[in-house]
Amino acid sequence: MRLDGPVAEVAPSLLGGVLRANGVAVRLTEVEAYAGDTDPGSHAFRGRTPRNDVMFGPPGRAYVYFSYGMHWCLNVVCGPEGLASAVLLRAGAVVDGHDLARARRPGAADRDLARGPARLTRALAVNGDHNGVDLLDPSSAVTLTGPDLAVAGPVRTGPRVGVGGAGAATPWRFWLAGDPTVSTYRPAAVRRRSVPS
DNA sequence: CTACCGATATTCT
DNA sequence: GAATATCGGTAGA
């Protein structure tokens, strides 16, 4: 597996790969690419902060961040080191540890267990403690292994979820065509203003 | 199935 | 104060 190339090429190459953590494994079906230097949608675009620090480190590390005050999202840092690019792991199909995953996601249908970035981290029990771990080290708590077979299936691309502005024009969301575990598209939401006083 | 909305950390203005 | 790489519950078609 190669993570040091252009992020737009690395991202689709991860589809079909297997992510394993805490007794559950998923086959990746949906990812998004974020380039740190040129991409307004990237957390790293405006520079280094305590939150995005690991994005500036070596490739193969996990970048885990807390979103909307409630959810964890997991990224794979891509190289070369210093570019601060990453691939957001958006969805997958559970291939091992179904009972554990179901216990962590009460009431969810099997295909919904890891259908969405925050659902995926919940099914795998990934949180901020895993920020910065080396996904390529088999002894890590979270590991990522490349697709075993050459091709997992046809790949489709489209706009990224929740990214507005100039970044919306870049079709850097990649998923396996027809896979039922790909998350439903939610356009960048118009949200109601904060509580009126 | 779609549409709306609340919860709320981190960062930017 | 406002925006954001979201989700689950609820309401309605």
The low-pLDDT segments are: 193-197
Count of beta strands: 8
Order of helical and strand elements: HEEEEEHHEEE
Q: Which structural class fits the helix and strand makeup?
A: alpha+beta
Beta-sheet strand percentage?
25-35%
Per the principal axes of the C-alpha atoms, what is the gross shape? globular
Tally of helical runs:
3
Radius of gyration: 16 Å
Largest sheet: 8 strands, antiparallel
Helix content: 10-25%
Distance between the termini: 53 Å
Mean pLDDT: 87
Would you mind describing this structure in some detail?
By secondary structure, the chain is α+β, with helices and mostly antiparallel strands. The chain has helices at residues 7-13, 98-104, 117-124, and strands at residues 18-21, 24-34, 62-67, 71-78, 85-96, 142-145, 155-158, 173-176. Strands 1, 2, 3, 4, 5, 6, 7 and 8 form an 8-stranded antiparallel β-sheet that branches. The chain is globular, with a radius of gyration of 16 Å. The chain binds a DNA duplex (13 and 13 nucleotides) through residues 32, 34, 41-43, 46, 49-51, 65-71, 73, 75, 88, 90, 116-119, 122, 160-164, 167, 186, 188-189, 191-194.
Features:
197 residues, eight-stranded antiparallel beta sheet, globular, disordered C terminus, DNA-binding
Topology:
Elements: H1 7-13, E1 18-21, E2 24-34, E3 62-67, E4 71-78, E5 85-96, H2 98-104, H3 117-124, E6 142-145, E7 155-158, E8 173-176
Antiparallel strand pairs: 1-2, 1-6, 2-5, 2-8, 3-4, 4-5, 7-8
The structure holds a DNA duplex (13 and 13 nucleotides).
